[in-house]
Design brief:
alpha+beta; 11 strands; single chain
């Protein structure tokens, strides 16, 4: 027993053990493998804008009215890239003129630093599509709220959604798409 204790107290052995423990800790932080077994389900309703205007005037208005309620401008089906991904993506204009991206029935893997990106990149199947979304223009709409369910992401007011053609569930840590959808205009 004295020989083992003597070896374990040598400075080189101690340094190697410290580096190994530090490496394992960093690897766990960076890859977060436990997220592969943790699902986060988020179910959000499609937002309705409530107008707080004055009561209607007695005389009928002759201005054309726009349909009440949210309007789907574009939609698409998510395809798998790095991780199995499915669901529907919609670009929706609300009554107040603002836009949201809506993910419906999303089902993908959980992972570190997942984002929802509005992009101008074409959606390609297989490995060819894993890394294309950061090559052109993109807008991050925020962290993925959950890897399952239906959820909404606000498009910033200064962003013209007509200039973008796809949505990606993007892993910012590893620069790879988990899944993406081409937006087909309605």
């Amino acid at each position: 027993m004295g020989r083992v204790q003597k070896v374990l107290t040598r400075p080189l052995v101690i340094a190697v053990l410290v580096v190994a423990v530090g490496g394992v800790g960093f690897g766990l932080y960076w890859f977060q493998p436990w997220k592969l077994w943790q699902d986060e389900t988020v179910e959000e309703a499609l937002p309705q804008v409530v107008e707080t205007s004055a009561p209607p005037a007695a005389a009928p208005s002759r201005t054309p009215t726009t349909p009440a309620g949210p309007q789907t401008l574009a939609s698409g089906e998510l395809i798998t890239h790095e991780h199995a991904t499915s669901g529907t993506v919609k670009l929706v204009r609300l009554d107040d003129g603002s836009h949201i991206v809506r993910l419906e029935n999303l089902d993908t893997s959980n992972g570190p630093d997942l984002r929802v990106w509005l992009t101008d990149a074409p959606v390609k199947e297989g490995k060819a599509g894993w890394h294309v979304f950061d090559d052109g223009k993109y807008v991050s709409l925020g962290k993925l709220k959950g890897n399952k369910g239906s959820q909404n992401y606000v498009v910033p007011e200064d962003v013209d959604p007509a200039r973008f053609s796809s949505i990606s569930i993007w892993c910012d840590r590893f620069d790879v798409s988990f899944g993406a959808a081409e937006l087909a205009r309605a």
